[in-house]
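Journal club prep — side note

Before the paper discussion, L.F. wants everyone to see what a predicted structure for a comparable chain looks like in token form. Sequence:
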Amino acid sequence: MILEVLKVLYISSKESDAEYLRNCLNKFEGAKFNIEWKESGESALTYLETNPKIDIIITEDALTGMGGIEFTRKLKEFKIDIPVVFLASSKEVTFAVEAIRIGAKDYFLKEDMSSRVLPQALLRIVETQRLKKEFTELEIKKRRLEAMQEIVVNISTKISEPLVEMNKIVNSLEQYDLPEKVLKYLNLIKENIERMQNKLEKLQNLKDDKTVKYIKDIKMIDLS
């Protein structure tokens, strides 16, 4: 069975705590945990600048320099959307309430490091975060499609009616005895009209906002 691998950023003033946490999580059979240790909130923020693909952050309450609460606030300030879990020494309820209030997803005591509840909670939080992200992306996609379809509805009649008239004109001209070069030209016009009508029909029935590269950084809607 292929186990899910979670990337964990652990912030603690003691590297020995990181090693202990690593050993505890490695005993869990439901997933693998790759733990990156940082000794302060400042160094963790610097690390995240170049390593944003972290699944979950575990921070202690008391850190050298920036504390866990301040670190969590900084994540919100910098719009870093990675779930945070506190692994704290403090048993004060007010501290736990404050941690949850500013956005922490859960709060554990350090004495719970070896508990199976911790890795199970980490898995649950990461899965919830992924579902939330997928839902947000689907909502954005839905709104974008609705906006595109509204634009298409507004312009489709303005485009389709002239195309129909052009096609009628070309058909009527083909009834005459015209030079071969002119007939080829008319046929080319008909092909272009048909191609434009097909593209317009695809736009009207658009179900996805998939794009393809056009020129350099410019993208266009994929109507293939």
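L.F.'s comment for the group: Residues 16 and 179 are 90 Å apart (CA to CA). Keep this in mind when we get to the figures.
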